[in-house]
Write a structure and sequence with these properties.
Blueprint: E1 14-16, E2 19-21, H1 32-46, H2 48-56, H3 60-79, H4 93-100, H5 107-130, H6 132-139, H7 142-161, H8 166-169, H9 171-186, H10 188-193, H11 198-205, H12 209-221, H13 239-245, H14 248-251, H15 256-288, H16 300-317, H17 329-339, H18 349-365, H19 367-373, H20 377-399, H21 403-419, H22 421-436
Antiparallel strand pairs: 1-2
Helix pairs in contact: 1-12, 1-18, 1-20, 2-3, 3-13, 3-16, 3-18, 5-15, 5-16, 7-15, 7-20, 7-21, 7-22, 9-12, 9-20, 15-17, 17-20, 21-22
Length: about 450
């Protein structure tokens, strides 16, 4: 039986160096609504498979092994004290794919991905171990922070609606699923209704779970996906072929030159990843004043150690094009919104985020669930991208402290989508220098927004 906390304090944990170990049913209450969401939201995890098939030519069962391995590592965040739903570095995926595709398909391209992911992982671990991660969060000017997060939101939305993108493949399904999802998650009208109606209250607790079920039904009706062919049993990932043909175990380590050539793109990806760290902190802060009963310790250094370790591990045993990011913004906001409803709805944020990731791991193992959601993987991915886009834009704007910050941020965000993170960062530095001069790091002294441009 889990041990409840004293109001105003942290949930119980076992000290473990920089980590705080929390185990289900012992240190936090298991949250069944979040677990059931996870069962079907594993569809988004599975959406990485087509990306790996496209980039590396991986067979489905080999890519499934990578997804399963990455899924298990998702659990390390809440278990070790990081109160988030972890995920991919989603907006960086096009950047990473473009980099890797400069190498010929085969062992050389695999080596390029290994070098990239290992460099990113080690870089994050060094920042976490030295304590520099916390300093980085406060070191970047607000205008650039705001722009990076805005750009991540723009990139997420653009990846769905770009010509030839996922919206063109599932226009009706995405429109209906996303419209209902936004109503259930963000609407004030539904928030009021679910407090007076037991059935609507239950639907609200289930988050995106009903939307995935709906997508399974409406996509075939509109002729945008086949009806699922349900198979029974457990999945059969091919770890043998993965280790032999797609890892350093079978191919050996990449040459040093590849690690060096990956550095500029790694730094660009880290800028985007850094935006996820900012979003994690901001989303948790949003709920703090509504949940004074639980003190949440979000530590960027600890987060860097965990996702840095995940990336380093995966670079050796299963290089992954989507990378190991610190936040799945779409699901974090779903969990946070339910957490805001009070202690009865979700006792601890660790319970919500942890139970969700236990659910996705269960779903990944069950062939009936994998085969059920396989036809709508593109819709599930679009759903999470658009929710992430909404959250990123909202948080990005709130990071700005003035009209000047917001103007710079808007240009940074647009450049990130058009030319990539490296260009966006360079433009942000130049604009912030031109606008603020010697106040580059300080910017405006306080939040100042006026109706008229000054």
């Amino acid at each position: 039986m889990w041990k409840d906390r004293i109001d105003g304090e942290e949930s119980p944990f076992i000290p473990l160096g920089p980590f705080k170990l929390r185990l289900p049913f012992i240190h936090y209450r298991f949250e069944w609504p979040d677990y059931f969401q996870g069962l079907l939201m594993c569809a988004v995890d599975l959406a990485a498979i087509p990306l790996m098939i496209e980039l590396l030519g991986m067979p489905f069962d080999v890519a499934l092994a990578v997804v399963l391995m990455n899924g298990l590592l998702y659990l390390t965040h809440h278990l070790l004290g990081d109160p988030v739903v972890p995920g991919w570095i989603t907006p960086a995926i096009p950047l990473i794919m473009a980099y890797c595709m400069t190498f010929p398909e085969g062992p050389e391209r695999v080596h390029s991905l290994v070098a990239f992911q290992m460099t990113l992982g080690i870089f994050a671990i060094v920042l976490g171990m030295t304590g520099m991660a916390s300093k980085v969060v406060g070191f970047i000017p607000q205008s650039i922070k705001s722009g990076v997060i805005l750009g991540a939101g723009f990139a997420a939305v653009n990846s769905v609606f770009v010509a030839g993108g996922r919206f063109d493949s599932f226009p009706w399904s995405i429109s209906i699923a996303v419209g209902i999802a936004f109503y259930l998650i963000f609407s004030r009208h539904f928030a009021a209704l679910k407090t007076t109606n037991a059935l609507l209250g239950l639907i609200g607790k289930l988050g995106i779970f009903p939307i995935i079920i709906l997508a399974v039904l409406i996509a075939p009706v509109f002729g945008e996906a086949p009806w699922p062919d349900i198979e029974w049993g457990l999945i059969s990932p091919d770890f043998t072929k993965l280790f032999q043909e797609y890892t350093v175990i079978g191919l050996g380590f990449p040459p040093i030159a590849m690690f060096i050539s990956a550095i500029p793109t790694v730094l660009a990806a880290y800028i985007i990843l850094f935006g996820d760290v900012l979003q994690s902190r901001a989303l948790i802060a949003e709920a703090d004043h509504l949940r004074p009963d639980e003190r949440i310790d979000y530590n960027p250094n600890r987060a860097h150690l965990i996702f840095g370790g995940r990336n380093t591990f995966m670079s050796i045993f299963g290089p992954d094009i989507v990378m190991c990011g610190p936040l799945w913004a779409a699901m974090q906001v779903v969990v946070i919104e339910r957490y805001k409803d009070g202690k009865a709805a979700m006792n601890s944020l660790f319970g919500g985020s942890g139970s969700f990731r236990w659910g996705t791991n269960t779903g990944l193992l069950l062939l009936p669930i994998v085969s059920l959601v396989e036809p709508i993987l593109g819709i599930a991915l679009s759903l999470t991208l658009l929710i992430q886009g909404y959250v990123s834009v909202r948080i990005g704007i709130l990071e700005s402290r003035s009209n000047r910050d917001l103007g710079i941020a808007g240009i940074i965000g647009a450049v990130l989508v058009a030319r990539g993170a490296t260009w966006a960062f360079a433009v942000g530095i130049i604009l912030t220098l031109l606008v603020y001069g010697s106040d580059f790091f300080r910017g405006e002294n306080e939040k100042i927004f006026t109706k008229d441009l000054d």
